[in-house]
Please model this.
Amino acid sequence: MKINLYLCYGGDVEAALAADPDIAGQFKLGVSAFWVDGESEAFDRILELTKTTSGLRLTPDCVFTAKEQSQARYFQVLSRKRVKASMPDNLANLAHVKALTPVKTAEGLAIKRMERIELSKVVLDANTVAVLDDWAAEYLTGANVAELLKKAGLKGLELRPVYHRKTKAPHEGVFQLYTESVMPPVERNISVLGVRAAAFSEDSPVRMLGALSYALDGAPELADFNRTAEPFSSNQLPFWVVSRKVVELFQEHEVKGWVFRPVLETGTALYKDHLARWEVLRKKLASNPRHHFAV
Model:
């Protein structure tokens, strides 16, 4: 695995980086943001150049090899397709979410589950799963995928109609993916960032920087479709976690829209490697207390 970092910065940082010909030649500095490998010599040089500046704002992305992915039993869902909604549709769906009563998932944790989606128009390929616009970690799917999921006998999934916002009639061939299954709380290790309540308002008290990690030995059997116990997304909505069965089914039938990040389990070699890399990164960032992760 490796940790890629999206760096955002101000004018003083850009001036410090531009003064180094190697860095200036390697990265496009004028856009005030770029990606870099967190274990590269270039990143080490960037940290050296920015020690006395206003600091970097970092967004991490953990990337796993195919071999590492093959070791995982569960995966976090990441969406690459989006169902665009009109402003009136978004406002109506957001009002629905705001009115929901949070469901307690563990001590000090609660999430919301979007129980209904209304759209005046849906454009979605029959063999695709897509996220609802750019604010809700809730998913819609077309008729082909819905039929595939019905036949697969997977645990924890309910297919719900998607309704027309004005007529309240169900759209044909479009379904909302819904689950009430919940993961245990994540392991709060060095790749997890604690945030003040004011920073996230009603959302999660922690922010995931690395991969979702769990102590699953001895835990009850998980469903194939699950929500995280933490409201990691906006509006107190959680992330989704699926089993390897789901991943293999989607890959076999070339379902579009989702990509999958391995969920790590404590005690495994991959989990230990993940922690070791995060320990190195956090120590590097201590060179300037003004460096900070995006929350």
